[in-house]
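Worked example 2:
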Amino acid sequence: MLDNIKVYLFSAENKDNYCLEPTASHLAREFKSVDVVRSGEICDKMAEFSVDPCPVAIFSSLSAYDYAMFARGGRPFVSIGLEHGVAPFKTYTFNPRFVEYDCYVSPTALWGDRLARLNPRYAKKFENVAYPRLDDLAARIDRQGEDLHPAWGGASPKARDLVIFSWGVEFSALYQMPDRAGVVYLVHPAMAKKAKDVRLQAAQVVVSTPDAAASLIRDANRIFGDFSSMTLEAAAFKERTYMFVDRRFYSTGCDLKPDFFVRDRPGFGKVESTTFSLPAKHVLNFDGLAKALSGKAVPAGGTIRAWAPRGLLPEVTGDHSLRTAQVISQVVRRVWPEKHEFGLMSPSLRAIQTVGSAYKDVLGRRPDYPAAFRHAKNFLENPAALPLKTLSLYTAFAQSPEGKRRWAAQDFQVPRVILEALPADDA
């Protein structure tokens, strides 16, 4: 049965790839085909996905799932959710919409137990635990050559301290930290533009990439991280990994409740809807991190491994991707037969294709994601007859700033628009 079924791995952002792609080779052994659909390709690949009799779709983002639902136009498909992160602190980590998947593979036991407890009717959907992203990180660490990352700047092995920041870091705070060789700040890719403006004398700021993170984690003597998933991933590989939490490091609330940062409040470091909170005495504050980076020892018992409860950290087993693929195969065998249904091209797909043609004809390029889906949704909801709303779409594109620039540059050819009415159309 499986060798007749196509699998689509939908990636809404680059970070999704590192969770989805490790499973591809395992899935390819059983299924007809496995297509990794990256963010820039979603508009093109949705067409094939939409007309597939009953595909299997794997997501690491609910936004990609929403676009897939739209493209299918109500026709069934098998949906499976994976997770691109492992830190359980933010609200999205227990989103009630996870129950919409046929199966959701939880990255840790703590994560899955919480979802099962919050959604007892769907508890079986959350009982499988695997985190393919950890296999990707392990493989990258193993592939690193003998050369050190240049950010270490020749610092001795014992002087190498890596500091991991989540999204939203306030870079001015770094000027209050020890500025010495061997201190490396690893920051979220979304902060790349602001990171360019940081001017430290000896410490270094590195924008995170999968290979840079792997290299720095491997060669760090100590690692200090905030509530980022990468902090917990680093702790899985490196025993001397410590956590810090202090609101002064961030320009925003980081999608966390205000009390998360207040040490004398019950909500400090709280993992919502569980009994666990970060231990304040072992989690460094602003001054504690500064002292540690100046070379002072961190109090005993402060490593994340020393205080982490069961199921908080992912385990380095090397088989997360294989176990995920096995779960997917089991789920497909169970639910695919009842979902299998053939159908005609959906109105949603027609909308997607029309918008794609407008991008090509008027703007001379491929569609944007996710803007193209917003256009398609508006097109679908437009009550006008098909010819009129198609012309309206083309006119709107031509009158956009980009369309006007293309016309002014004479890089424009009036398109030939052919409208074909299908039997279901009123026009």
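Residues 136-307 form a domain with the Rossmann fold fold (CATH 3.40.50). The chain has a mean pLDDT of 90.
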